[in-house]
Amino acid sequence: MNRIDDNIEVLEPGKRFSSYWGELWQYRELFYFLSWRDFLVRYKQTVLGVAWSVIRPILTMIVFTVVFGKLAKFPSEGVPYAIMVYCALLPWQFFATTFSEAGNSLLANARMLTKIYFPRLIIPASSLLVNLIDFFISFVILLGLMAYYQFMPSWKIVFIPVFLFMAMITSLGAGVLIVTLNVKYRDFRYVVPFVVQLGLYVSPVGFSSNIIPGKWQFLYSLNPMVGVIDGFRWSILGEGYTMNWAAFSLSAALTVLFFFISVTYFKRMEKSFADII
Amino acid sequence: MSVAVDVQGLGKKYLISKSDKQQYNTFRDRIYQLFIKKDSNSVEEFWALKDISFKVKKGERVGIIGRNGAGKSTLLKILSKITDLTEGRIEIKGKVASLLEVGTGFHPELTGRENIYLNGSILGMSRDEINAKMEEIISFAEIEKFLDVPVKRYSSGMTVRLAFSVAAHLEPEILVVDEVLAVGDAAFQKKCLGKMEDVAQKGRTVLFVSHQMEAIDKLCDSCVLLENGKFVMHDETSKVIDAYLSASKKYSEVDLSCIKSRHGEGRIRFTKTWIENGRGEKTPIVKSGDSIKIVAEYELVGAEPIANPAFAFAVNTIRNVAITDLSNFTAGDEFHEHEIPNKGKVVCEIPSLTLNTGSYYFNVLVRTPGAVEDWITEAFYFDVEAGDFFKSGNLPDTARLILMNQDWKLDFRDQ
Known about the structure:
The complex is a heterodimer.
Chain A: E1 8-11, H1 20-26, H2 28-45, H3 49-71, H4 81-108, H5 110-115, H6 122-148, H7 160-184, H8 191-202, H9 217-220, H10 224-237, H11 245-269, H12 273-276
Helix pairs in contact in A: 2-6, 3-4, 3-6, 4-6, 4-7, 4-8, 4-10, 7-10, 7-11, 10-11
Chain B: E1 3-17, H1 27-35, E2 43-57, E3 61-65, H2 72-79, E4 87-93, E5 96-99, H3 112-122, H4 127-141, H5 156-168, E6 174-177, H6 186-201, E7 205-209, H7 213-219, E8 222-227, E9 230-236, H8 237-245, E10 253-255, E11 268-276, E12 285-287, E13 292-300, E14 310-317, E15 322-327, E16 343-350, E17 358-368, E18 371-385
Parallel strand pairs in B: 3-7, 3-8, 5-6, 6-7, 12-18
Antiparallel strand pairs in B: 1-2, 1-4, 8-9, 10-11, 11-13, 13-16, 14-15, 14-17, 17-18
């Protein structure tokens, strides 16, 4: 009974209590519960609930197919234009919602931040899980769409998880950076909708990135979502779709670099969040 | 006995910007400062805590008392790792759970049961622990019937009971508790206090902040007294409470502009408050029956005109009995928009003070329709001395709180 606990924690200015990632692991249940809360709330609050995550991608797909495919007559890589658009919408919507939610997450949970200790990274990260569920719902629609067009996806579809992971890293990296800036400077919240709006047209969502002239391909790949979207198209569309692997590697490397920079910045600022929020 | 918490030379510094009264930084301002206005003097240092040292033994229950702004909450926040310390060192032996607010993370859309899981995990319980305690938590909160109803349909009393019940079933080695007993109805408060005693009996170390001296007295073995961020004493509870209540230092005027523990939107901010006696002198000591003025200076933050604000002074005894609210709104003296200057003072004149001998404080509050703008608890402490309230030459019994003007007659009518 009288176990002597030698586990002494020392608090000193600027010092971490234990290893950052180890602590994050210890708090995994909180991460799970917060994701669970966001999930419950999202699907309880709106009557549309699940319907919303069905309607939104479908409507966007229809508009893009009409505007880019029918009116602008962009090439469709030998597949139905709707499917080409939808393949890109999947990761794009995932990115857009995760990025916006993560970017606003600390302010939305400000009370919790000032009243309880936990590794702060949990909060922006928990928006990932909810949006993954949305992603799966949207994915099922893709299957339906393929059935409708009697389109057989390529065997490379098994690589989807790899590109999904890349989309997660991209969204979290961007979300974590913006959430840190958002706590420090409140006017960064105006940046989020702007990035999402502009990004939709800058990224190859409504068109194939193969229509970008060759000499601009590398510059274009500086946008990490270009790599993710190309990856999705490559996995699903099959032989007809040619992929610029050099540009993709650049995109992927940038994504990882960006993620580490964001998380490092977040870790540095984390301790002051409760004071300035 | 081994030491559970060892605080050595703790200090916590905040930087407050002097010039702009805006609550938050914006990137726009930052850029502006970088290129146009190189003004680094606009930031002022403020030590919320300085040179705090004390030890808490394992299994000891320690109260932390002091006035608003003394640094109690900051101390708890540092101990709970919510905020970083600026200097010094703290050694903590054992797992800490902190309860700085009842119902942190509660979501109105979720049911009682879902909130128990969520709140429990926020407070640091594992899922297995929550499952094991579920029955106990539900029955303690007395909400069996409403378990699967969203919390938004609960009465406020039920929500508080549920929230406290989750917290009460935490079993850490060290429990850090802020003023949480001040919620709920009297019967439930009593039950909570009983539960807290149970927790303490089990040999857990408890650090407890409260304004309710009875609770402190009942629960704590010893107390730490803080004043203006400085350590005053750490001694037996009764001695420290006496020292606190005798309120050694009273100020004739309190500067509210740099008080951090305030609530509200902040479009109006209090800057100063004081009491004037009948001769117009600022003083913390007045007499029963005196004609006094309670004054607060305010300033508007931002350019928005403020419509019809209601100012209030809420008077309490030092033992935290709420006596009365003085408010221009209830008194019918409304201040309309065109009459509110950017800076000014509000004066509440009391022709004859009806408080009896004792120590009191008041909170200051200002609200606009639909929002609290600024709210500072324990803004000003004052003593009331015996005075000839009734102009009769007979001083009233000092064991009562309130004096009332009265006229007596003896009626001789026939039966």
